[in-house]
Amino acid sequence: MAHQYDVIIVGGGHNGLVAAAYLGRAGRKVLVLERRELVGGCAVTEPVWPGYRVSTASYLTSLMQQRIVDELELESFGYVVDAKDPAFFSPFPDGRHLFMWQDEKRTLEEIAKFSKRDAEAFPRYEAYLERLARVVESLLLITPPPFPPSGPLDLIEHLKLLARFKGLNPSDLTGLVKIFTQSAADLLDEWFESPEVKVTLATDGVIGANGGPRSQGTAYILMHHCMGGVGGKRGLWGFVRGGMGAVSEAIAASARRYDVTIRTDAPVRRILVSNGLARGVVLEGGEEITARAVASNVDPPTTFLRLVGDGQLDPEFAAAIRRFRCEGTSLKINLALNGLPEFLAYPGAPGPQHRATMHICPSIEYVERAWDDAKYGRPSERPLLEMTVPTMYDPSLAPPGRHVMGIFLQYAPYTLKDATWDELREPFANRVLDLIAEYAPNIRSIVEEMQVLTPLDLERRFGITGGNIFHGEMSLDQMFVLRPVAGWARYRTPVRGLYLCGSGAHPGGGVMGAPGFNAAREMLKDL
Ligand SMILES: Cc1cc2nc3c(=O)[nH]c(=O)nc-3n(C[C@H](O)[C@H](O)[C@H](O)COP(=O)(O)OP(=O)(O)OC[C@H]3O[C@@H](n4cnc5c(N)ncnc54)[C@H](O)[C@@H]3O)c2cc1C
User: Measured between alpha carbons, how far is 504 from 11 in angstroms, rounded to an integer?
Assistant: First the structure.
């Protein structure tokens, strides 16, 4: 039977678009079906209030792979990033503050305010993380080797993998093994003494994580956040001009150049499978579209348990997908402001603090306590806040004199013990404003509009199961050869002709394009 397309991609998140662009570039006839009215998934810019354009979910870029930016010529389609400087601003309750700048000398002066020893250690720590991150980064754009290995050819692939580590000296090799299993707090304790320096660096270890800074595995998440860069400078994060949707729009424009068809408002109800072979999709409206292959940009539980259906799956595989952990603990608040927060620890506005990621989290113990609440099904009494003001770099995102501020928050567990998010949404958001007011008392007077996206709202709006921002926990037992499940980490699935191309596949979440890139490479071997 003649198919209408070579490949249908379910979901127009940035990874689905990357996969589509590479498949189109290789001459395949591709259709992308996105359920929402706009492409981008968790990388979107939305007109939440008149005159405002808001990165409703993701808000900063760093991980986006330079190879993809270059090959898809994203800059010619409007992809521009302003590197954040300063990187971080941490106000503390005792009135002190800490900045981290692009310029290392300035950062060391700041750290020395808290500890001269830490200032001496910082360049060595950065160089160490960079050496480890470089090795791990080289794994982002590869397909994980077959696991468990089942013959000499598979073993050769594992040996090739080991060869990537040969440049590391013995102590770095030890460090690499440790970083996969350590907590962020343990890693930082080895290097630093100042609680303020440690907590400023520890936040990267818990963003999106189901764990506190003392939970094993958070050191890896910390390193995960150091793997990218902006403008060739490793570890820098930046604001995308036009908001995060501009990343997705640039990828979509690149894909269209290769004749990829992108349909929005096109929710897929079912992936059609007959005799173990994917042969197309059915849309919510009943329209049936056929293809030689289907790639899902949607998370693994939704892909397999809802769109394919239990009946088409091997029971053991279905059980493994059901065990795939994907409950989130992150919450996002987007604000329209008629001014800027004025911090007691660094008065004045506007100032460099507003150009940085502003942290409300005074110590590692504070963050660990915040996690303790979440462990038992309660949103943190005093959460960790990461606040950004993209309008400091791109004023076009708001009317003149107005600002957008994003608050990314840990921890807000998807499953609550004694309440529902529909009940807690407003009181919790108010508690967050009260917390900010302890550091910046004018906050309430400058808020004009507020959008609160609890994990339940993230699930509803972006279609991510459990509101998990990475499509599934990034814990060691769900990474690399185990993502999403052992035996199926190579983008193919037990359903022939069905592939995974989203963050539920290696190397996981973040706006990096890597799962889409890798999936396209594997699909092109088969099609
Ligand atoms: C609140 C939040 C903050 C974040 N902050 C950052 C950050 O600052 N920087 C960073 O790098 N990462 C961040 N992340 C993580 C990052 O945004 C995601 O990991 C990444 O964007 C996921 O991309 P994806 O293409 O794999 O999937 P998604 O973006 O989830 O795309 C999947 C697409 O599939 C669509 N879809 C779902 N079901 C169907 C269906 N039945 N039919 C058709 N289409 C369907 C969805 O609408 C969506 O467009 C954040 C995520 C969230 C939620």
Answer: 13
